[in-house]
Amino acid sequence: MKQYLIYAYDFTDSEALSRRLKVRPEHFEKARQMKAAGTFVIGGAILNDAGQMIGSTMVLQFEDEDGLNNWKGSEPYILGRVWEKIEIRPFK
Q: What global pTM score does this model have?
């Protein structure tokens, strides 16, 4: 399995938090499914100095690049326009 470190930063417009909270249950359900499948290792919210959510960090693992691409095509925070910038790095 190849592991990936995901840094995903939220949009900063006035509706960004609203979009995050709207799709958050779907995002958590996706994470639970991935955990059961063995592709979600760990994750959590990135907070600013005031304790507000401004992004996410996750470690995911897939057999190949297709798995990573399938995740990107189905992740609720991507589809729901929560994350503006996503950095994906190999992780070991």
A: 0.91
